[in-house]
Each structure stands twice: as C-alpha cells, then as structure tokens.
Specification:
By secondary structure, this protein is mainly beta. The protein is built from six helices and 24 strands. The strands form three sheets. The chain has an 18-stranded antiparallel barrel. The protein has a two-stranded antiparallel ribbon with strand order 1-8. Helix 3 runs antiparallel to helix 4. The two termini are 35 Å apart.
Amino acid sequence: MLSKFFKNSTIFLLLFLGSIQLSAFDLIDPNDQFYKDINFWQERGYLGHLPPLKPYPVQLAVKLLKQVEIKGSSGDREKSGKYLEQLRGNLSAGVNTEFSGRFTSNGYRWDTGVLAEINGSLGKYVSLWHNIGGYLIDGYQSTDFGSSDIYEYGNRQLHDTKPDWASIGNLAPQTSYTGLTSIGDSNLFFQAGLARSTFGDFSEDGLVVSPRAPEQGHFDFVLLGDQFSLTSSTLELTASTNGGDGIYPEKFLALHSFNWQATDWMELGFIEGLIYGERIEPLYFLPFSWLFYTQGFVGFVDNSYMGATGRLSLPKNIELNGILYVDDAHFNDLIRFNFDTKYKVGIQAGINWSPAFAWLKRIQLDYSLVSPFMYTHWNSPAETRDLGTLYAEDVNYENYTHLGENLGITLDPNSDRINLIWESEPAKGLSFGFSTVYIRHGNGSRDSNGDLIYTKTDSSIDGISPNGDIFDDGVDGDGIILTNQSSYSTNLLNQPVIEKVLQIGVSGQYTVQIDRIGELYIKLGYTLESIENGRLEGTDTNGYLTGEPFPDNNSLNHYISVNAGWSY
C-alpha cells in the first residue's frame, strides 16, 4: 500500500508542477497562511481593531496590508508587499493547482486539484474572489463531509468538495467551488457567496464558527470603525436528521456581534447566534436587533445562543483572549452559586506571545471546554407531537450542525482540550511548527457511576442514542426534555470511563523564489496520536446505539502529510 501511495503521488506531483498557480494565497480560505499572518501582525501591534468574522474582502485586506507596510519590520513589510502585489490589480484570472497526500496506518489518500480562479476589483467598491474546479482522489476516501480514519481526532478535510458518481479507474473525481463577492469599502461592506469562515480570536478552531467546518452560504454585513465593529451575518446551512444523516435545505444561523476597543490594550465583544429552519425569518436579518428578544415574536421555536469575548494586549507582545458561548443556563441556581446545575456552555481561554525571534516567531497556549449537551437540541417542530412520531429520521433544524458536523468547535459535548502551538522562521523561506494537543471526552448522558441519566423506552421509537455526542438530544423515552429540568446535574467529565487523546505534531515548510519562474513550496508534517478508551458508542443486541463505553480500547496512530504548491 505504501509503495502504491508514493508511486501515484509522484506521478500526480509531476503533473502538478507542470501547471501554474495564479495566487500564492487564498483570501477566502480562513485556514490560509494570510490570516495567520494577520493574527501575528495584530499581536505585534501593527494592526488595530479587526472584525471578528473572517474571511475578509479585498478592500479590507489591502487596507490592513498597507498598515503593515508602515509599521512592520523589514521582513513583515516584504511579506505584506507580496500579498499586496496580488491584491492591488484589477480583475484577473488563472489556474490554481493543488497537491496533497496523507498516509496513516489505517490507509492513505492523495488529492490533486485543478481550479480556475478569478479575483480582484471591479472599480473602487466591488471585489470578488472565486475558485471553481475539481479533484482526483485516490486511496481511502469519504464521499461525506467530516473526519475519517486518515485524519487525526478532531481534524477534518482542509478543502470542500462534492462527490461525483463517475470514476476514472480507481480514481474518484470530485468538484469544488468557493467564492465571495463584496460591495463597499474597507469600513462598510456587504459580502455574499459560499465559503468557510471563522469567528473570533481562536482562528484554529473556534466555538462560534470553526474554519474546519464545511463551507457555508454567506450573507454578511460589516461596519468597521476605529474603535468598534458591528457584524450581522446570515449563514445558510444544510440540515440533517436527528441521527445525523441526509442533506436538507432551509437551515440558517443568524449571527450578530458588537465589538468595542475600549482602550489600546482591551477589547470587549458581545455575540448572539440563533439557529432556525424550515422558513426564512426576516426579523433575524435586522442588524441591530436583539435575537433572543426577537425570537419571542415567533413563538420561541428556535435555538438561540449568547456570548462574550475579551482580548487584552499586554507588553512584550503578549496577548490574552477568551470567549464564552452560552446555549442555556439555569439562572436562579447560578446566582445562588449552585454550579452543578443546568448549563450548556462553551469556554475558550488563551495566551499568545509573538516575539518574532528566529527560533520562536509565535507561541500559543489555549484551553477549550464544551459542557454536556452543548450544541445539541431537540427538534422543536416535533415537540408537541406524540412520542411515537419522534424518529431519528426526522430532520433537525435546531441543533448546531451543518452537513452532519458541528458548525463550531471540533469537540463533542462534555469535552475539553489543551492546545500548544510553537512556530519559528529560522531563515528566509524556511518555517517549522510544533504542536501538542490533549483532549478528554466523556459521555454526558452517564453519571459518575457510569449509569445512564435517562433512557429511551424503545430504541425503535426515536432511535437516537444516549451516547453524549452532538445528536444526543437529551430527550428521554417519555418525551421529557432532560436539559429543561432545574434538577439537571451537568456530569462534567466525571464519568468512570473517559476517552483521552494525546497528539504530538511537527511540520516544516520550505519556500523558494525562482526568477522569472515563480515561487515553489513544499510542506511536510507528521503527527503521533495516542487514544485511550476510544469509542464511547456501544451497541445492544438489537444493534441500537447505547453509549456503553469501551474501556481499554487503546490505539497508537501515525499520520504523515505532504503538500506542494507553485505560484507565479
């Protein structure tokens, strides 16, 4: 298998190097190096207040890069200048090619893609960035979105494709499209299209919208001032059933935020999110509306979230940031300091240091926590029906999923994670990275004794497993919504069997500029992963999921990745 992988990889890499890529970066991909540089420059103090929702349009990107040219170091000015060369021009088109390969003990996969790219400006107030093309995929593959055995725990595909039912020998063709069009200037703009996005300072994997989630339909309005920003966005999502299957239309996330740069060293923000579906609700489009209050006018049939963000810029390029995202909480208990009560929340806190030494460009340490039943929701339109009509096959428009995956952070409910990232640039064109990730996850539908806190009276009715994942809706066999009860105990990571994951990863990238030819880069990565007590989703004798844990189900996994690119 390994020899076949490298044989096919070599053939397609040669084909790949024979083509030309128009742009060295992808402005509408929030995972792109461009946004990592933007975060670094903000931590270094070159950039002021920024909108929390990415990606950015051309107009805003040009403004930010010009600020770096004024305030940045010589190396930063050189890098921002290269970005500006590709953004200042009028509308242009070209071919973008990609090659990536992954090899694990579970299988392999390589992707070779050719995409037509058109980007640039149409006058002063209109810009666009669109990619359309296809991939040929060999090896282990999944025609569905999400993770698979060739990706580390908590990781997902880095690009979005739609499967094609045709085949070319053993190769699977898949089509791809991303694109955004923006109208306005750098301070006030509206953008629409289909793209991945991220929200807030935790751009690797955030609570509100993760850049690892599949691309969404975008309708974004952004007002950016010197000391504040207002975002009003509607993301068009794809619904699935209560069991996480199928593709269904008319599911939306209304997302509003207000961020205030209170001082040069402190920024505060407020977030509102609301998941709804089976209709279009014009009230949720209002940019200055209070979504939780507005929800009352339509009968409280939707699923609302609230949150707060904060960022402190300290001396020596040290930055502290945090976010709280709340789904539901029992206010009366919390003000009595009873914290073992009903609350569905996500929390992230981090510290970043950007000294810009050769051996240490940036170091990031953050902690994330997702409480039991966070992001889950029963299917509101079915709440008033008899229990016998609540099936796993019913479409759920209320949970925080998109194409069967969590739209937010890549953690299941009742999980936490510690993440350490170290980046360096010891020489021009050469960069290295090191990461350590530790994850814990337990079945929130079980208590500290390992017993189920609620049961399904008949697995053939409802059919939803009490296994503690994002599709575990917290509704028992009598139709009682467990997470609505004031006596609810959170059981936060107190189960006797906890799934534990440790990942240690290293990566290196080398980029070389060749006169009259362009820029070539190659990136290699390796991750060692240890999983203890894997698989919490046991089955009973009838094949129904019970959430019975599998203690001592341990594994050791290896992941190797290779990426190459050519730009001119």
